[in-house]
């Protein structure tokens, strides 16, 4: 009984102590939560203060950067002024000279502009009606550029006739149509000094279109709608086309020295053709004739041997046949060698005959071209003495003669040089094989 009372007392004591511990923990947790909330509020307050301080510092930094930029500009100006103070006198003079040239150039441009604006096609004493007519024509020209319309103009045709035709200016391109002659095409201004006044410029027909191509221009003139051709080169193609010439016309500009150059060229060409025909007709050489002839000596039957030798001799033709004939009819010795050598010299002369004329043509043609050049330049200087150097048309004839003769001389010399080289190579190849055959035949044993 006593033990039960003791146990009960102990259990009650433990329960009371556990209950007390639970109450203490709840109090601690509540204290911690209150401390955390207090710390959070302090943190938020500190962050707000930092944000405000950061904004103030950013404004101050921008102000300082602007101040630094201004100070740098002032420093650069001060440095430039300091550099100018330290420049030498020669540098200052060069800079002043450059500024003076710039000023003079600008003044010239302004003066030219004022002169062009003040320039008028009539005198200051002209009547007001004349000035009013000029102004009206000028305004009509400007209006025609903005709104193109067909206008009656005087057009110089390719055959030299002066006809009245309808002209339409489409930007830089001008076309014409003449219903009376059923012709249409492109025109350009003859008076280049009067480009600013298109209504008073004389026009020239650069190109007359075919009937099917001009139908579009007539449709455009009559109905206001049509398909027309367009020149993207702005009449430059017409000028280039007008300068085209045939080979005969081009060669004819060379003057009198063209005739010997052409004569030498034809002469060299004929010789080259004849020599080429000669070389093509040359028979092929029998290779290793001595060895083949020695093989026939091994034939024991006399009739077969003679037949085989005759068949071998029949294969040889031309110059080689003559060498074989000399070797067979002459005994081995100095006499055979001399006859073979003499025959080889004759063959070489026959192969090289007239080749020197081609070489002479290749050497003389450039010299004749140079002679024509000198003659043309002399003629040019004579014309320059009479008419001066300001007119290119006056001296173009002599220059053309000088250039054409040089060109034709080279045109003749280069092919002649190539032909001579090719034909000489053929002669050397054939004669070398023939000479080798002759050397071998000098030792041929023809004992019967």
Write up this protein.
The structure is a single chain. With 448 residues, the protein is an alpha+beta fold. Among the domains are: 128-242, no CATH class; 260-441, no CATH class. The chain is built from 13 helices and 5 strands. A 5-stranded mixed β-barrel has the order 1-2-3-4-5. Mean pLDDT is 78; it is low at 192-200.
Low-confidence stretches: 192-200
Number of helices: 13
Based on Cα principal axes, name the global outline: extended
Helix content: over 70%
Order of helices and strands: HHHEEEEEHHHHHHHHHH
Strand portion: 5-15%
Largest sheet: 5 strands, mixed, barrel
Mean pLDDT across every amino acid position: 78
**Distance separating the two termini:** 171 Å
DSSP strand tally: 5
C-alpha Rg, in Å?
A: 55 Å
Secondary-structure class: alpha+beta
Which sequence of strands runs across the widest sheet? 1-2-3-4-5
SSE topology:
Elements: H1 2-86, H2 89-118, H3 128-146, E1 151-156, E2 162-170, E3 173-178, E4 183-189, E5 203-208, H4 211-223, H5 236-242, H6 247-252, H7 258-280, H8 289-296, H9 302-315, H10 318-329, H11 334-352, H12 355-387, H13 392-441
Parallel strand pairs: 1-5
Antiparallel strand pairs: 1-2, 2-3, 3-4, 4-5
Helix pairs in contact: 7-12, 7-13, 10-11, 10-13, 11-13, 12-13
Brief digest:
This protein has 448 residues and is of the alpha+beta class. It contains 13 helices and five strands.
Notable features of this structure?
transmembrane; ExbB/TolQ_transport; alpha+beta; cell membrane; transport; protein transport; 448 residues
């Amino acid at each position: 009984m006593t033990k039960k009372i003791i146990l009960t007392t102990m259990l009650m004591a433990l329960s009371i102590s556990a209950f007390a511990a639970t109450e203490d923990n709840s109090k601690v947790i509540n204290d911690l939560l209150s401390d955390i909330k207090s710390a959070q509020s302090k943190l938020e307050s500190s962050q707000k203060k930092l944000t405000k301080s950061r904004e103030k510092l950013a404004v101050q930094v921008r102000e300082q950067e602007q101040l630094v930029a201004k100070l740098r500009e002032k420093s650069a100006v001060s440095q430039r002024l300091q550099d100018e103070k330290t420049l030498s006198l020669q540098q200052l003079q060069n800079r002043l000279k450059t500024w003076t040239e710039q000023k003079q150039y600008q003044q010239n441009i302004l003066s030219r502009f004022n002169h062009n604006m003040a320039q008028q096609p009539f005198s200051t004493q002209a009547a007001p009606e004349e000035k009013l007519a000029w102004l009206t024509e000028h305004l009509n020209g400007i209006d025609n550029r903005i709104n193109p319309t067909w206008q009656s103009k005087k057009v110089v045709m390719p055959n030299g006739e002066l006809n009245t035709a309808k002209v339409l200016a489409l930007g830089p391109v001008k076309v014409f149509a003449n219903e009376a002659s059923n012709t249409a095409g492109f025109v350009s201004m003859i008076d280049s000094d009067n480009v600013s006044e298109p209504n008073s410029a004389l026009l020239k027909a650069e190109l007359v279109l075919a009937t099917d191509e001009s139908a579009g221009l007539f449709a455009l003139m009559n109905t206001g709608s049509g398909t027309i051709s367009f020149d993207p080169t702005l009449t430059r193609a017409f000028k280039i086309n007008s300068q085209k010439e045939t080979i005969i016309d081009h060669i004819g500009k060379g003057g009198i020295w063209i005739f010997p150059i052409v004569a030498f060229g034809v002469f060299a060409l004929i010789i080259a053709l004849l020599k080429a025909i000669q070389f093509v007709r040359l028979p092929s050489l029998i290779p290793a004739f001595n060895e083949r002839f020695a093989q026939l000596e091994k034939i024991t039957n006399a009739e077969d041997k003679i037949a085989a030798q005759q068949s071998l001799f029949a294969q040889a033709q031309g110059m080689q046949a003559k060498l074989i004939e000399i070797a067979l009819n002459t005994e081995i010795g100095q006499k055979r060698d001399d006859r073979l050598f003499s025959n080889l010299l004759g063959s070489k002369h026959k192969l090289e005959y007239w080749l020197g004329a081609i070489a002479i043509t290749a050497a003389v043609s450039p010299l004749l071209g140079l002679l024509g050049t000198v003659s043309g330049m002399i003629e040019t200087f004579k014309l320059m003495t009479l008419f001066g150097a300001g007119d290119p048309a006056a001296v173009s004839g002599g220059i053309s003669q000088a250039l054409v003769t040089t060109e034709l001389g080279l045109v003749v010399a280069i092919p002649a040089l190539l032909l001579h080289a090719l034909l000489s190579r053929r002669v050397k190849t054939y004669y070398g094989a023939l000479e080798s055959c002759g050397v071998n035949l000098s030792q041929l044993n023809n004992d019967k």
